[in-house]
Specification:
Blueprint (H helix, E strand, L loop, with lengths): L1 H8 L1 H13 L6 H12 L4 E4 L6 H12 L3 E5 L6 H5 E7 L6 E7 L6 E5 L6 H4 L3 H6 L1 E4 L2 E4 L5 E6 L12 H6 L2 E4 L5 H9 L2 H5 L8 H12 L5 H13 L9 H6 E3 L3 H17 L7 H12 L4 E2 L1 H6 L3 H12 L1
Helix pairs in contact: 1-11, 2-3, 3-14, 12-14, 12-17, 14-15, 15-17
Length: 327
């Protein structure tokens, strides 16, 4: 336990260094970077949504460089096949005796950080190739199962405005993502700095801060962080209140929500709250930590009703209302 505390006490300093290095390339977006780091040390995955030109892809590739981990970029297109992601068997020949055999060639998913670029441009069959990897950290091909390297983090992007030729992510796929992060336009001053700087030239000046082995130690240490009973209760009540089927659900939830967040959301609220606390130098999370990560954890897990759509009610507004009543 003492060793874990020692590792966790270093985290605020490590976070500061990572943020500074990413800041050489990415202007602003500090909250998004923090959320991605929370997901990383919580063993979670992120789905980033934003209009073109907001540096989603550049942010992820910069983070991979700063973290000094094996990085793969997969460009999702309508003709992408599952084997293009996981790998495939090829017919090879033994030079010694001339006999032929099948050899498995691993796909780009065998890396530490996966950039799934424009994930909603590929059909559900291909999207499903990520399901086992994201949940079980394994890939099954034929009758063989291969373990993925750890840490393993999927950072996917999607564009909210070009809907022609896109495929909605199935609920099972969405639920695999710990965080759903909305990337907004930069402020006026940030945009001026973006125009002044050459981001791709700055990328060459980025240095690595931490490696895969140290991140694995941090992930294991974060799992041992204690969570008080009242924080645990708040996280569970928050997730349960999003369900219209919950017997104690408020009337507005029964009216506005078709399906709410499942138990995995409760887990992720606690995991993320732990990680946020230790990144800020605290060895136990508070209710405020749960509130801070609630939108990112819950908004993609709430399916609103037609009544909510007609009234202009969004999942974000529902989460805000639940928090105001519980807190």
């Amino acid at each position: 336990m003492e060793k874990n505390i020692e590792i966790l006490e270093k985290l605020p300093e490590i976070k500061e260094k990572i943020t500074q290095e990413i800041g050489k390339v990415i202007v602003g977006q500090d909250k998004i970077v923090e959320q991605m780091l929370i997901a990383l040390i919580s063993n979670g995955h992120c789905l980033l949504e934003g209009v073109p030109g907001l540096a989603k892809t550049l942010m992820i590739s910069t983070m991979a460089k700063v973290l000094s981990m094996k990085f793969s970029r997969i460009q999702f297109t309508p003709d992408l096949m599952p084997s293009d992601i996981t790998g495939t068997d090829i017919l090879a020949e033994n030079k010694a005796d001339g006999k032929r055999y099948f050899e498995y060639i691993k796909g780009p998913i065998f890396a530490n950080i996966i950039l799934a670029d424009e994930i909603n441009r590929t059909p559900p069959k291909t999207q499903a190739a990520l399901l086992q990897a994201m949940q079980e950290y394994q890939v099954t091909a034929g009758n063989k199962t291969f373990d993925l390297d750890r840490p393993f983090l999927v950072l996917a992007t999607q564009n909210p405005i070009e809907q022609e030729g896109t495929y909605l992510l199935p609920e099972a796929q969405l639920d695999r993502f710990m965080f759903y992060l909305n990337i907004d336009y930069p402020s006026y001053e940030e945009e001026k700095n973006i125009v002044k700087n050459d981001a791709f030239a700055s990328l060459n000046s980025v240095t690595s801060v931490i490696g895969a082995e140290e991140i694995t130690h941090i992930q294991n240490a974060v799992k041992e962080v204690p969570v008080s009973e009242h924080v645990l209760e708040f996280a569970v009540k928050l997730a349960r209140t999003t369900r219209a089927q919950y017997e104690d659900a408020p009337d507005y939830i029964k009216k506005w929500v078709s399906w709410g967040a499942g138990p995995r959301a409760s887990q992720y609220l606690v995991y993320a709250a732990r990680s946020r606390a230790v990144l800020q130098g605290r060895l136990t999370p508070s209710v405020d930590d749960v509130i801070n990560v609630a939108q990112s954890v819950l908004q993609h897990r709430i399916i609103i009703s037609f009544a909510a759509e007609a009234e202009g009610i969004t999942p974000q507004k529902i989460i805000t209302k639940i928090i105001s009543e519980l807190n």
